[in-house]
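About this split. The held-out portion is used to measure sequence recovery: a designer receives only the structure tokens and must propose an amino acid at every position. Recovery is the fraction of positions where the proposal matches the reference. Here is one held-out target exactly as it appears in the evaluation file.
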């Protein structure tokens, strides 16, 4: 018997805000259930028509997500305990894939060697040197 997905799950599917296993479950169900495909199309049509709920706006603009600066401070252990607790909750309990990806990017940049950083800076400089104003 096919699983009956909630509106919230289908909204999260459209926002790509589910885990990979949950996304796969919905994709498999969509291939097997034309009625689910119609439900998803109706949700998408409603969103495209500008009929938004407060929850949809909140999720779409990721209003509960910490900023990149807050994630960086969290990574360095430079945030207040309440903020760290919220970010832990957001990453681990809510499982926000956007913030998990942002934190992973910050970690990888934090762990880069100075040689890699210098090479990237040089590459940026070389690619934009012709566009810089030389004070003329």
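Reference sequence for scoring:
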């Amino acid at each position: 018997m096919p699983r009956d997905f909630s509106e919230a799950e289908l909204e999260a599917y459209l926002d790509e805000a589910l885990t990979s296993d949950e996304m796969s479950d919905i994709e498999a169900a969509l291939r097997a259930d034309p009625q689910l495909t119609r439900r998803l199309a109706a949700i998408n049509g409603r969103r495209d028509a500008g009929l938004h709920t407060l929850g949809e706006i909140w999720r779409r603009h990721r209003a509960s997500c910490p900023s990149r600066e807050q994630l960086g401070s969290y990574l360095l252990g430079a945030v207040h305990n309440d903020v760290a607790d919220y970010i832990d909750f957001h990453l681990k309990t809510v499982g926000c894939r956007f913030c998990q990806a942002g934190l992973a990017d910050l970690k990888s940049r934090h762990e880069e060697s100075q040689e890699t950083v210098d090479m990237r800076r040089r590459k940026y400089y070389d690619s934009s040197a012709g566009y810089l104003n030389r004070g003329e």
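Annotator remark: The chain has a mean pLDDT of 86.
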